[in-house]
Amino acid sequence: MIKLNKIDFSYGKLGRDILILSSGVFISQLIPLLLQPFLKRLYTPEEFGLFDVFLKSFSILVALSSLKYENAILLAKKDTDSKSIIYLSLIISIIFFLISIILIIFFGDFFNTLMNNVNSLFFLCLPISVLFYSIFNIFNFYLIRRQRFFLSSSSKVSRRISEGIFQLIIGLSKNLRGGLLIGDVVGNIVQGLYSVIKARKITSFKYISFKRIKKNAFKFRELPLYTLLPNILNTFVLGSLTFLILNKFKIEEVGYLEFAQKILVIPSVLISTAISQVVFQRVSKLVNQKKKITSLLISVTIILFLVSITFVAVIELLGVEIFTIIGGDEWRRSGEYAEILVYASAIMIVFSPLGKVLISLKRFKVNSLWEIFKFIGIISLFFIDNMSIEGYLKRYSIIIVFFYIIYGILIFTYSFKYENENCIK
Fold first, then answer.
1. Residues 6+ apart with CB under 8 A from 261
2. CA nearest 326: which of 31, 29, 40, 26?
3. What angle do CA 140, 144, 147 make, to 5 degrees?
4. Which residues of 151-179 are buried (b: 16+ CB within 10 A; e: fewer)?
5. Alpha helix locations (H) across 43-178?
6. CA 371 – CA 366 distance, rounded (Å)
7. pLDDT greater than 90 at residue 366
């Protein structure tokens, strides 16, 4: 009876933690969603296309910025070690920022040609956004480590409020341009500074010797060695449609695709991201204590599966109507694209949040190989010509569904193997 109560308490606490993170993520995503009817009428599909290219480039650079050492903030057993990893991650992020600035100064023309001649504001905003988001990400992991989920959630809200305000103000002004990009920069600066302030309120970041920082850099070297490349590949895959359509069609089509993807990622952002962070924290803790993890994973998978089925039904039945109501008749094409891509989004809703289980189990090579093969599958689309946008979207969806089913099989296979190897019942 006592054992049962402990289990109930554990799952109740898990649900509470997920609810806190989800509510913050929900509010932070609800704000830009509520602004869409206004923004879609203030900015053109071309401007949203440029903004989407910016965000996808931003995501790839963020994956590189601290070499994935921020994950070790949760994996470290001692709090002192986690703080030394914070310092390490910050140092790497600042160095990456400086290198980015130097590359833009000397190779700006080359990058501009590569990105189909985007405006100069694009390259001015990009490294600044990456730096401050990286700062947020580092301190956010520490807030999650200390189970300060409310503070983690509120930092995301601070970003969206400041971002939305600037995008609206600049959009309403007829004399200013680049409101979407500038709003993103402001939002990331606010979010980064907010997370630093909140982390410093719950603990002191005293001087930590370079020797300890170096020791932990070596101890967790497998993170950059085995998770950096797959994470970059995964980030590229998530943004591959944007780059594919930019390469094959006009940037206006990227704008329509951006709106479709913005709606399709809502379940992932509202639910999956929060669950991913909580599950990573909880599984890492259970693994360190040599305890069972599969019952937790099964419960989470069932919840996510039900969410994904519901989402598919909504998009299939009301897809085009949803997009025209939010953005107007001009954005009808986005709804048509969403109906094709919804199945890829649904499978990612189920298995993407469980991906860091392989990291917790130290199965870095397995995760890397899966990411590499998925990348190869997606990159093959770039070598196909003379196809309609709908054709590219359908093939992309098939590839994503196939590889994420494989991902789910790998996650559960190695979870059961971990329990068998450690004789956990």
1. 52, 241, 242, 341
2. 40
3. 140
4. bbbbbbbbbbbbbbebbbebbeeeeeebb
5. 45-65, 72-75, 79-114, 120-145, 149-172
6. 9
7. no
User: What tokens does 138 get?
Assistant: 């580092």
- Distance separating alpha carbons of residues 187 and 132, to the nearest angstrom: 9
**pLDDT tens per residue across span 36-71:** 899 998 998 999 999 999 999 999 999 899 999 998
Q: 204 is written with which tokens? A: 């002191």
Q: Report the C-alpha gap between 232 and 223 in whole angstroms.
A: 13
CA 151 – CA 143 distance, rounded (Å):
7
Backbone angles phi, psi at 267, to 5 degrees: -60, -40
- The CA distances from residue 108 to 105, 118, 320, in Å, are 6, 11, 39
pTM over 0.70: yes
What residue type is 345 in one-letter code?
Answer: S
> How many other C-beta atoms are found inside a 10 Å radius of the C-beta of residue 354?
25
Task: Give Dmax (Cα) for the chain.
Answer: 69
On whether the CB atoms of residues 354 and 327 are closer than 8 A, the answer is: no
Rounded (to 5) percent helix, strand, coil in the chain: 85, 0, 15
DSSP code at position 362: T
Which residues neighbour 83 within 8 Å (Cβ) at sequence distance 6 or greater? 142, 203, 205, 208
